[in-house]
Design a protein that fits this description.
The complex is a heterodimer of chains A (801) and B (292).
Chain A lengths: L24 H4 L16 E7 L5 E7 L1 H5 L3 E6 H7 L3 E3 L5 E3 L5 E2 L5 E7 L2 H8 L3 E6 L28 E8 L1 H13 L3 E9 L11 E6 L6 E5 L4 H12 L6 E4 L15 H13 L3 E4 L2 H7 L2 E2 L2 E9 L5 E11 L28 E9 L6 E2 L8 H19 L3 H8 L8 E2 L5 E2 L4 H12 L1 H13 L3 E10 L11 E2 L2 E2 L2 E7 L5 E5 L8 H13 L6 E4 L17 H28 L6 E4 L2 E4 L2 E7 H8 L15 E5 L8 E10 L6 E11 L6 H20 L30 E5 L17 H17 L14 H8 L13
Helix pairs in contact in A: 9-17, 13-14, 14-15, 16-17
Chain B lengths: L7 E4 L3 H11 L3 E4 L5 H6 L7 E4 L4 H4 L2 E4 L2 E5 L4 H6 L1 H6 L1 H8 L4 H6 L2 H7 L5 H8 L3 E6 L2 E6 H4 E3 L2 E2 L6 E8 L4 E9 L6 E12 L2 E10 L9 H7 L6 H14 L10 H23 L5
Classes of the chains: A alpha+beta (801), B alpha+beta (292).
């Protein structure tokens, strides 16, 4: 982790990779960020959404007359209004439909029913109380396990011929081969361990809620949409396709964004309503969710009921893994993932271990809950997959009476096996897993921890050590396999080099806090030797940036980062021609030294990139066919995902009298290839570890028997604070990706993906004296205490006596 | 952003003025002090007062913490952080410092007031339990004059107190008696959360015997936030593991927790006993002069 070899700029920043403060923080720490809610336009109106108090009810009537009579109200829009425009329903990212405003019935608590446009936010909210909706409550489907019962209410009777709540069945792997492996294991005296586990519904809960300012100019017909979207270009295209607006007349501007975590990938009804509101009133319309609206109605995460079976020889060689999943998708199938992967990348569940047989079957169902499903830094459901395999490997270790570190070490894929094709078809690009696990064990002082645990256990004290080893696949495409609504997952990038050698790079991806304005400048710096402070990163405005699919699934560095590297390389090659012309030599005689083309064997004879930029714009006569300037563009279509990995160890202490869990230590060894800015990577890992601890110990969106959301505020949906997390102990190994031009792998979600299992494994390890092998997250004090009584609770439903 | 329903705003310049405004504006007027419970409720429109009377200008008049005779007197406008920062409070009643350390977070404690907390009467209000354990009294003023009520008689139910529509709580008086030791124990899902359960213990020791005791319970449906059964078990006894266990059992048996997302009733009942025992052990140790 030394940065000693890195040359620095006049401003003290590294030329290329290395630690530097984030360029964007200059405005953030001074309160000069510019978020959607900061956008103020002349004549701007404010929208508010009336939401359903019921989880499932028929709408008998809606009377908006009193609201319309409110002196400050400009428009009241209902599903009936939208029906006349053909916009009452919109397509989801999973080829289902979702109600923009309910017409026939409401299908989840908090669903959008009407939209009021008024002169200010207060009046808009007041007018919601003046809308009279008569509902006829219907039986609700709350428990996903009962969604397919014959007598379950049919939620999606809007779909022709729909008579049940089934969405899809999806399989991966080889069922026959898996069955054979299990049979062989048992025949040979091996073991089979089965475990049910829930990855409960959670919420990304970004600090900034979702919102938009829509301005349809009635004269020019141009729609400008300020929106805190993670995918501005994809949104523009979808608006064009759905609303029939001409795409060149749509400009989506994603300004500063206060956290996304996948929550800001979908198009929400509020965005469509704001656009309609602007069309109807001929004024700009702002709509910002409040906190409860965000938690109750926008893209949730997880909600996977999983049943795993793992087979192994009696000495601990894993032979196979089978998983059945019941996926709760809520009232509309609106998960955001590549088209060919309805369960996201869940079938990476075989994890980091070498065995030949695996199979999973995912059944998805509708319930009377908010739609969504892929969000919260999950790498398209790799979070659920890693949790499943890392939890069940611990269950296997328990069954075998084997140390969980030893069991993992015995089964990890070996470095020489890469590229490694998994039984479900993934091709892991590179890795040295044993090295990462060993480093984590060494950092933790694993043997000593186990000794301490044994001493404490003898005294009745509860201490637990949990390990998790994860492999992620991040950076979707390739575009031939991966698209969203038919849009291939490749990213454009443009680089302009100004005559003075300063640069502007235009990205398709939009940052939500990841530090793009710094890291992409560093990529250009690394490739061209231009100081990072001389590189301006432009992003988030579809009129000013090239097309691309957006920032989620840890894809910015793997895809757009590669595009930036490629485009900078093109600039460098162009500069080489200009250098050869200026130096009156052949291009073959030139060699690249950071920031400079020079004559081989004559290093004093060369031109810096800044000199070459000026020459490129000068009257220098260029060779036949060579155009002036240094600008370049590229579209990067990744040949494969990148596969970051890591080894995490968590140490917990539990108060047996109260069930309170204290995370004492957390050791995280991450391998994401070379680190562009190690400080930013460490920040990403810190954030993800906090997420993971939150998920394991406190975060959950549960529902009561009426389908009422029980996590609709930060008093009910608990996010961890610095008081609940330890000082993190980070380690690093570096295994470059062989196919990424910089060797980099994505890292934004690694810690969120890898850490929950480590925490849960630690808690269950501590609770071993109580003889319970598994309890579902979140492991709140109540859940831990109930587990100690041998009766862990279901955490997706309201607790009952 | 959540926005409240329309309301009128008045600013009181004295206690008499505040009471006068309450009388003028009627029962739909509410006092706002720190506002850290009330304003969120207004924003969620769970509370929709017609008028809000801001009593923050009374902070000087009602914000002091002092000794008056044999009582510790806490002004209703004292902020949580004032209580936490008061050496005299810590000297006599460490239970209050224990409790304040686990009430919300520093931002809330900087602004939230003691009087506001008690009058909000949340069933999980830590100070209701702690002050009840200390046998504190509440001083309530109306246009007809001043009356005092035991803090353990202040609450008539969740979010309800005996403070009348045109009255305001002005002070808390905590009697200082010799041989006192006190402590607070709380279990929460996360720092800053309301208690899953909490217990306050106060003992007054006289010649090795517990001459008086106060057991406060929070968030477990204990009537008036106390366990008089546990207090009865303790009174007149020399402290011992058995006595503590018996008091804890009485506290657990006498409370009436409800199941919610913080946990099942049986867990909360268990906590009522466990935390009573823990608080008692520390309170007794403190009464005996030990550091705890």
């Amino acid at each position: 982790m030394t940065d000693t070899a890195v040359p620095t700029s006049a401003a003290g920043n590294p030329i290329g990779f290395g630690r530097m403060l984030r360029k964007e923080d200059v405005r953030f720490v001074r309160g000069h960020g510019n978020y959607v809610d900061d956008v103020q336009l002349p004549g701007m109106l404010h929208g508010a959404i009336l939401r359903s108090p019921y989880a499932h009810a028929r709408i008998v009537s809606i009377d908006t007359s009193e609201a319309e009579a409110h002196p400050k109200v400009h428009a009241v829009i209902t599903g009936a209004t939208l029906e006349t425009l053909g916009l009452a329903w919109m397509p989801t990212l999973s080829y289902d439909t979702q109600a923009v405003l309910a017409t026939d019935k409401v299908r989840f608590h908090g669903q959008e029913v009407a939209f009021v446009v008024a002169e200010d936010r207060y009046s808009a909210r007041d007018a919601l109380n003046l809308i009279d909706v008569e509902y006829e409550p219907l039986p609700v489907v709350v428990d996903a396990k009962k969604a397919l019962d014959a007598d379950a209410a049919v939620i999606r009777d809007d779909k022709d011929g729909k008579t049940d709540n089934h969405i899809y069945d999806w399989e991966a792997g080889d069922a026959v081969k898996a069955d054979e492996a299990f049979a062989a294991a048992l025949a040979d005296g091996g073991v089979v361990v089965e475990q049910e586990m829930l990855y409960p519904r959670s919420h990304p809960a970004p600090m900034e809620t979702c919102g938009t300012v829509a301005h349809m100019d009635p004269i020019t017909g141009k729609l400008v949409l300020w929106s805190n979207t993670q995918a501005p270009h994809a949104h523009r295209t979808v608006y064009a396709m759905v609303a029939g607006l001409p795409e060149h007349k749509i400009q989506v501007i994603a300004p500063d964004i206060g956290g996304g975590f996948g929550n800001k990938v979908p198009i929400y009804p509020g965005y469509v309503c704001s656009i309609v509101g602007s069309i109807v009133t001929k004024r700009p319309v702002k709509w910002m969710e409040d906190r409860s609206e965000n938690l109750m109605s926008t893209g949730f995460a997880r909600d996977y009921h999983m049943k795993g079976r793992i087979a192994a020889t009696k000495d601990g060689k894993i032979l196979g893994l089978q998983v059945d999943v019941l996926a709760d998708h809520g009232a509309f199938h609106a998960t955001a993932q590549p088209t060919n992967y309805p369960a996201g990348f869940f079938h990476i569940f075989t994890g980091s271990y070498d065995y030949g047989a695996a199979h999973c079957k995912v059944t998805a169902v509708y319930t009377n809950k908010a739609p969504g499903g892929v969000a919260y830094a999950c790498s398209f459901r790799i979070t659920e997959a890693v949790y499943l395999v890392e939890r069940i490997v611990d269950c296997l270790a328990d069954e075998l009476g084997m140390d969980p570190a030893e069991l993992r070490m015995k089964n990890l894929i070996q470095p020489e096996q890469f590229p490694y094709t998994t039984p479900t078809g993934w091709e892991y690009d590179s890795g040295d897993y044993p090295r990462a696990l060993q480093l984590a064990l060494d950092m933790a002082g694993y043997e000593e921890l186990r000794r301490e645990q044994a001493e404490k256990r003898a005294k009745g004290e509860l201490m637990g050590i949990g390990i998790s080893f994860f492999t992620e696949g991040v950076g979707a495409g390739p575009r031939k396999h991966m698209d969203i609504l038919g849009l291939g997952m490749a990213d454009g990038c443009e680089l302009r080099i100004h005559p003075t050698g300063k640069a502007q790079i235009r990205l398709s991806v939009q940052t939500q806090g990841q530090g793009h304005e710094t890291t992409f400048a560093q990529i250009v710096s690394h490739q061209l030797g231009i100081p990072p402070e001389d590189v301006e990163v432009i992003h988030g405005d579809t009129d000013n940036t090239p097309f691309g699919l957006g920032t989620y699934g840890s894809r910015s560095t793997p895809v757009s980062g590669a595009a930036a590297a490629v485009v900078a390389e093109r600039v460098r090659e162009k500069a080489k021609i200009i250098a050869a012309t200026a130096l009156e030599c052949s291009v073959d005689d030139l060699e690249w030294e950071l920031g400079r083309w020079q004559v081989k064997g004559d290093p004093d004879n060369g031109k810096t990139i800044q000199e070459l930029a000026l020459l490129a714009h000068s009257s220098l006569e260029l060779p036949e066919g060579v155009e002036g300037h240094l600008d370049a563009s590229a579209v990067y279509n990744p040949p494969n995902l990148t596969y970051p990995f890591g080894a995490y160890i968590c140490v917990v202490d539990i108060d047996p009298g109260t069930g309170m869990v204290k995370v004492r230590r957390f050791i995280a060894v991450d391998d994401c290839g070379p680190r562009i800015n190690p400080m930013i990577v460490e920040g990403q890992v810190h954030g993800g570890l906090v997420d993971g601890i939150g998920m394991a110990l406190m975060e959950v969106i549960a529902f009561d028997e009426n389908g009422t959301c029980l996590g609709g505020s930060y008093m009910d949906y608990l996010l961890p604070t610095p008081m609940e997390v330890p000082m993190f102990e980070l380690g690093e190994t570096v295994t470059p990706s062989p196919h990424h031009p910089l060797g980099c792998k994505g890292v934004g979600e690694s810690a969120t993906v890898g850490s929950p299992a480590a925490v849960v494994n630690a808690v269950m390890d501590a609770l071993k004296p109580y003889g319970v092998r598994h309890a579902d997250m979140p492991l709140t004090p109540a859940q831990v205490w109930m587990t100690m009584q041998g009766r862990p609770l279901r955490t997706d439903l309201a607790f009952t006596d | 952003m959540q926005v409240p329903a329309p309301f009128g705003y008045e600013r009181a310049t004295s206690v008499d003025h505040a009471i006068q405004l309450l009388e003028q504006l009627g029962p739909e007027a509410r006092l706002v002090a720190g506002g850290h419970s009330f304003i969120p409720m207004m924003k969620l429109r769970l509370a929709q007062p017609e008028h809000v009377i801001d009593i923050n200008p009374l902070a000087a008049e009602l914000g002091t913490i002092s000794i008056d005779g044999s009582d510790l007197v806490i002004g209703a406008m004292a902020r949580h952080n004032d209580l936490l920062g008061s050496a005299v409070v810590g000297e006599h009643f460490p239970v209050l410092h224990d409790a304040e350390r686990v009430i919300a977070d520093p931002v809330v404690r900087n602004r939230g007031t003691i009087g506001g907390s008690l009058c909000q009467a949340d069933p999980a209000e830590d100070l209701s339990a702690a002050l009840s354990a200390l046998h504190a009294t509440a001083v309530i003023r109306g246009s007809g004059g001043t009356r005092t009520v035991a803090v353990r008689e202040l609450h008539t139910g969740p979010y309800e107190t005996v403070v009348g529509d045109a009255e305001m709580l002005t002070h808390i008086r905590v009697p200082i008696r010799n041989g006192c030791g006190s402590a607070y124990e709380k279990v929460e899902r996360r720092v800053g959360d309301w208690a899953i359960a909490a217990a306050a213990a106060a003992v007054w020791m006289d010649g090795g015997i517990i001459s008086d005791a106060g057991i406060g319970l929070c968030a477990v449906g204990a009537e008036h936030f106390v366990s008089t059964d546990a207090e009865a078990v303790l009174r007149g006894q020399a402290p011992s593991d058995d006595v503590i266990a018996a008091a804890a059992a009485a506290a657990a048996a006498g409370c009436n927790p409800t199941t919610d997302q913080r946990g099942p009733a049986e867990y909360k009942r268990h906590l009522a006993g466990e935390l009573t025992a823990r608080a008692l052990r520390r309170a007794i140790a403190r009464a005996q002069g030990a550091a705890a």
